[in-house]
Predict the structure.
Amino acid sequence: MIDHKLPPSWQALAPEFEAPYMRALDAFLEAERVAGTRVFPEDADRFRALELTPLDQVRVVILGQDPYHGEGQAHGLSFSVRQGVRTPPSLVNIYKELEADLGIPRARHGMLDHWAAQGVLLLNAVLSVRMGEAASHQKRGWERFTDAVIAAVNAQPKPVVFLLWGAYAQKKAAFVDDVKAGGRHLVIQSAHPSPLAARTGFFGSRPFSRANDFLETHGRAPIDWALPETDR
């Protein structure tokens, strides 16, 4: 069952849980549970991105597709894995671009809590997945809920940077008032950092320095992208 307890700053999204699409999603997840299907992340971590990054503190959004589907990987933050879990290939490529962009050495772990605590909303478009089955919970309703999350961030008065990597994430651009169209937020789109796509436009896109330049230009503090080795 979906835990309906949203963090205080995100309570404006609470009515979503009464919508028909969310009730259908709730029923689907319950059916998965009854069938004994392993679903990631654990229920307690499903809204962790919202818990670690209050709405009024969001400065950057990094949008993933759906959670990692391997044992012990997903913990509620897009692209992130806990300490002690092997860094996935897409995150390795993110680290490579970070090093090329800002000269920050690659972290020896994949835990991105340090970014989330600074206002980087590490959101997946879909918030659950079956073990070993990528994209298995797509088109069940999560996309509508995360559309509402993006719309809530877009409505914030302070400018935000949206990093949309890959065609799936770029669908969310429709919900953002882009500076290129006279809005107040910066949208940076590029290829996905996965090994299959990173060399087609992700490498060399310099998203981290561009995000910080925009934030500083608009009176907001930049993100410290360097990950401490002691992150837990």
In short: The chain has seven helices and six strands. The mean pLDDT is 95. Strands lie at 39-40, 60-64, 120-124, 129-130, 161-165, 186-190. The first strand starts at residue 39 and ends at 40.
